[in-house]
Write a structure and sequence with these properties.
The chain is of the alpha+beta class and 465 residues long. The protein folds into three domains: 161 residues, no CATH class; 99 residues, no CATH class; 126 residues, no CATH class. 50% of the residues lie in helices and 7% in strands. It contains 17 helices and seven strands. The strands form two sheets. It has a five-stranded antiparallel β-sheet. A hairpin with a 4-residue loop joins strand 6 and strand 7.
């Protein structure tokens, strides 16, 4: 009998009904002695205990070098040929069912081993065999201990698949109907990009897989000419007709082509194509962004329900796309506004209709800006000067009285002194994250601008809101 065993994954099961998840013909169940006896027909092989957890932290003089045996998840199927052919797709779908938009679990947590249960296994031999692509490897269970990959550390909490979402139900139906359905293939390629280890999955390979997953999800016919143009156009129909979006998507496709096909001796990509590729290469945060885009496109193709409060789903990749690709322009606009000669006077004297441009800058800084996404070098003195301008403007708006003034004055003095640590302490401890940007309320606007600028000094990116 062929079964698959996932040592590093445990699942949260529904309160009612059997403790199992059906993905296509595959059944995922807890790795318990009872399930081994009832499903596989033999005791849980003792040699599986060679897989150990990381050692616990201890103050003992002789600390342990490995932890307790691991009990994970057992995968079985009545149709062994189906399971052998599609275990990768089934595991990828399971991953997608519990995937979180903001942070995914490393794919290493879903590692699986193929085990051929034979009479020898039932006799609990001292030898353990693992099926690989090339051969079956045998090793003595008495002389081997295997620890998890480092990416698994700290990720042992039970994984919770969500079976209620419309798109997840559609995905389960698709893999049941056809395990090589284009959206199942897209999910499988998406899953392969989620390995943390750069040897298992190099970044250039991840970019190509993201591209392939998007092509599959959008049902782009790769046999017809002009695939790159249709790829870009399809994405722009989802996210909008912006030149920077277009160049980024085109750069992604060029990256995929170079990874898959390479460049011939006579390769001449052209100025436009190379400019798009350079933009893609130099974009910061694109690993997270591509993860969000690919997942977004797949969910959209699966029929995800739109929010009744917004044109976009709550986990749309559009805000992150804007943040990654617009942060440079937003910083340039902010710097020009706040470092002008007599900038504080200009802000104070603005008519309400003119101050709307400052409100727009504040909105961009709040919604679509992150210092980690700014590609061009940032001069620290400009950030400090901008903060000082904000502090002076707030002093005039508050009449130099009250709590807001006191907090702003503390920030302004730290900026004027060039005290990076004091600014970092201020941004971590300040309570302005509760302030909401209100049109027409100049104080809230300047608070938001000052707070966004102060995040530059948050070296460890502690402040996320």
């Amino acid at each position: 009998m062929l079964v698959y065993w996932m040592p590093y994954l445990t699942l949260t099961y529904p309160h009612r009904g059997p403790k199992q998840y059906a993905v296509g013909k595959a059944q995922f169940v807890p790795d318990t002695p009872a399930n081994w006896s009832n499903i596989v027909g033999c005791p849980r092989p003792k040699h599986l205990e060679i897989h150990r957890d990381f050692p616990p932290r201890t103050t003992d003089k002789e600390p342990k070098i490995f932890g307790d045996p691991l009990y994970g998840t057992l995968v079985h199927c009545e149709d062994e040929l189906w399971l052998a052919d599609h275990i990768d797709a089934a595991v990828a779908v399971l991953y997608f069912l519990g995937d979180d938009f903001m942070r995914g679990l490393p794919a290493e947590c879903f590692l699986y081993h193929g085990l051929r249960v034979t009479g020898q296994t039932m006799g609990d031999s001292d030898f353990v065999g693992y099926t690989t692509k090339h051969a079956e490897l045998w090793e003595s269970s008495q002389s081997l201990v295997l620890l998890p990959p480092l990416a698994v550390r700290g990720n042992h909490s039970p994984y919770r698949p969500d079976l209620d979402k419309t798109e997840h139900q559609a995905l389960l139906k698709r893999i049941s109907d056809d395990p090589i359905d284009r959206l199942v293939v897209a999910v499988r390629q998406y899953f392969r990009t989620q390995f943390s280890d750069i040897f298992t999955s190099p970044l250039t390979e991840d970019y190509a897989l993201h591209c392939g997953a998007i092509e599959a999800a959008l049902d782009i016919n790769s046999l017809e000419s002009g695939v790159g143009g249709r790829f870009v156009q399809a994405l722009m129909e989802v996210y909008g007709e912006e030149d920077r979006f277009k160049d980024f998507f085109y750069g992604l496709y060029v990256s995929r082509s170079l990874f898959v096909h390479g460049a011939s001796v006579a390769y001449s990509p052209g100025i436009k194509k190379m400019a798009a590729y350079e933009l893609f290469k130099n974009t910061k945060g694109k690993i997270t962004l591509l993860r969000a885009i690919t997942r977004d496109i797949i969910c959209h193709a699966l029929g995800r329900e739109k929010s009744i409060f917004s044109l976009f789903s709550s986990d749309s990749a559009l805000p992150l796309l804007r943040k990654v690709l617009h942060s440079d322009a937003t910083w340039d606009e902010t710097r020009v506004l706040l470092t002008k000669a007599k900038a504080t006077d200009l802000l104070t004297d603005m008519r309400d209709v003119d101050f709307e441009s400052v409100e727009e800058v504040a909105s961009k800084l709040t919604e679509f800006f992150d210092w980690q996404c700014v590609q061009r070098p940032v001069e620290r003195k400009h950030v400090l000067r901008c903060i000082c301008t904000c502090a002076l403007a707030i002093a005039r708006l508050t009449g130099s009285t009250g709590d807001v003034y006191a907090q702003s004055d503390q920030l302004g003095r730290a900026a004027d002194a060039g005290d990076d640590e004091a600014i970092e302490t201020w941004i971590i401890r300040n309570s302005w994250h509760q302030v909401r940007l209100e049109p027409g309320n100049r104080l809230s606007v300047m608070q938001q601008v000052a707070r966004s600028l102060a995040k530059y000094f948050d070296r460890h990116h502690i402040v996320h809101w």
